[in-house]
User: What shape does this take?
Amino acid sequence: MRKIPTLFVRDFSGDIPVMTSKVHPDCQWVIDGEGVATEKYGGYCCMLRGGFLYRRWSCKAGCIPADGWVPAQPEPTEQGDWPGWVLVDFKNSSDKWHFDALATLVANGIVLGDGTYELVGPRINGNPYGLTIHMLWRHGGDVLSSCPRSFTALMGWLRELPMEGVVWHHEDGRMAKLKRRDFGYEWPKIRGSQ
Assistant: This one.
């Protein structure tokens, strides 16, 4: 999965990045009404391919890729990071929640197809979904049919909804994202907060 551009351009000139209403040049298609809006999940990005589970691992600028690293795009980003994947390793303690989610799938006879998923559950990012087990949720699975597309409407809409953000999927494979945090809103959303 390529690095997904943010729908609007951020201004990094100050101490804290500020979201502007200027549309990212690669994302005008969203404003033009193209693509489908889906919920952006707040967990760890994973990929199932050929029966193997991979976790997201970006090769930071100047670093050497990890053994078995699979690039997610042909070249590094403008910032020098190169998104990719490494095979989940049952001997690696940092991968234990990935295996917990796989065990749940196997125990329930669920077989997932190749694609990208989000690892969510009680030990992931503060468990904003209140889950009691670890799970893999397919990206693009929850369509947001009422999602607006203008800067002002999105700012108000995201403020009220208890979700991390939105990912738009174009039929040609392009994607764009927008998160609550892009507007300075807290995530996970705490009851009674912004």
